[in-house]
Structure formats: C-alpha cells, structure tokens
Amino acid sequence: MKHAFLTTAAAALMAIGTHTSAETLKMSHVRPQDTTIDTELRAFAAAVSDATGGDLSVKLFPASALGDYTTVQERISVGAIDMATQPAATAADRRMQISSFPYLAGNWEQARAIYGPGGAVREVMAELYAEQEITMLAAYPVYFGGISLNVENPAAGSVDPNGIKVRVPGIKSFQLTGEALGYIPAPIPFSEAFTAVQTGVVDGVIGSGAEGYYASFRDVTKTYIPANTHFEVWYMIISNESLASLSDEDQSALVEQAQAFEATRWDVAEADQQRSEQRLVDELGATVISLSDAELAAMAAKVRSDVWPAVLEDVGADWGRAILDKVAAAAE
Q: Which helix (DSSP H) or strand (DSSP E) does residue 174 occupy?
C-alpha cells in the first residue's frame, strides 16, 4: 500500500512538473483565418511544438484580434503580448519607414538581397526592434505593392496627373508616392478605407498588393495595376521578456524554426503573388494591367527623384542615405 501510494504521488508530481514546464506564446497577425499567412503560421506553430516535444506552443490570434499592429508592437515592447508577424509600426520609430521605402527593390532577387538574411534593410530593422526590447526572429516577404482602383485608368503606365483620388496609409512615403505617380492621395485609416472606396470618397487604394486587395477590397477592385510601388515585408517579432522566459533549448528551437519558416516563404512568395493577381481576374473579373519595363522604370525614377529626399529627411538624411548606399552596393 505504502509503495503504491509513493509511486502514485511521484507520478502526480512528475505530471505537474511536465505541465508547468510547458509554455504558450500568443502570436498576433493581421490577416483573417485561413489566409496564406495564417496557414503558414499554423505550420510554423506545429513545427515549434514538434521540435520542443510539446514543451512550447504558439497560439495564433488572426485578424488583429489582439489589437491594431501598431498597438501590438507597443505591447510586445513592454512584454504584454509575446509575439506577432506583421508590418513594422512606424509610429514607434519613424526610421522604420526604411522597411517600406518606395521602389527600393526592382525584382524578387533584389528584394531577397535587401530584406533577406544579411540584407542591409533586414539588419537595420533588427537593430531598430532591439531598441524597443523586441527580437526579430524572421522576415516574411509578402509581395510587391500595386494600385487597386474601383474605376478604369486609361493611362495606368503614366506618371502624369490623372485626377484619380486614392486612399493611402498615414505614412509619408505612401502619400508622396501616390502624388508622384499622378494620383490625389487621401490619408484614411485602414478601418475606414473599404467604405471610403465603396461610397466614392476615393476611387481606389495605394499601400497594399494583390493578396491584400483580394483579402480586404475584393468587392471594390475593378482595376489592378502591379506598379511595384514598394516591397511589402512583415516581421516575426517576439518580446525580449517572453524570449528570455524560455529555456535555452526552447529558445534555440524557436529561432531555428523561425529561420526555416522564412526560408520556405522566400521560395514560394513570388509564385504566391502571381496566384493572387490571377485570383483578382478569375474570381472578381478585375482587369490586371501589365506595365512595360520602361513604364516601371519611369515610375521608379520619378519616385526616387521626388519622394526619396523627403522621406530621407523624415528618417534622418545621413542615417537613411548610409543604408541606401549599402543597398546600392549590394545590387551591383
């Protein structure tokens, strides 16, 4: 009897110990459930659980359920939320605009050199997050940005003024880019953007790409112009406090799986963008306007001439120019 009691007690203590050693990290992201990022993050969470023998779980909160991405970044900074995969919030530090600098990359190969492992923007973004008590675990390449319109634009490849009013994010680089490309930019919060297009307050949107427009503006997208306005990259980030609370083994497993998650994404992101553009045509009947290399080059030249100096002033001219010089050197 005594032996049986001790054995049962020991088993109970072991069970308690096993239970308390398990950690759950809450991760926010900005897209609805079952979208591409949600599916890929579920696979990441499963890989983390497998790699740690169930010691570490990642619980997803899609569709900004834990708050707007700006709020989430602030809460990660103070340890109130564990993790997120989302755009960089420039409200926390204006220098983070460097991540969405317009026409910085011209193609996927350049994007990987700039934003991938060892890339100039990737490295500086990790430093900026570190200043906010946040560790960047991975970059998540999303797409090249474009222009979604609820009207036709017969001169889609031109940078001349066209009288078309578009919603832009409240970020200086996007506002100036819209203007440089011939549009009338109207800064409107994302939560009000769909209604603004639907009611005719604006004729379209700049600031996202085909996947984002399909997810959030599918009923008001009649024309899509893949103008490569910017390269959209999100970041998988974790609170330093949350990371430090994990065992060394779990930290290593988390970092390793985040690297694998990013590597996989770089391999599929370009094809994913093409699929999203095709969905606009096949499912929504939208017109996707192909721009020539010459038209894209003219857009890039206009934005670099008109917009870059102003944005550099906003982020700190010397600081920003040093990063752009690294980007240019890497592209050579």
A: helix 172-180
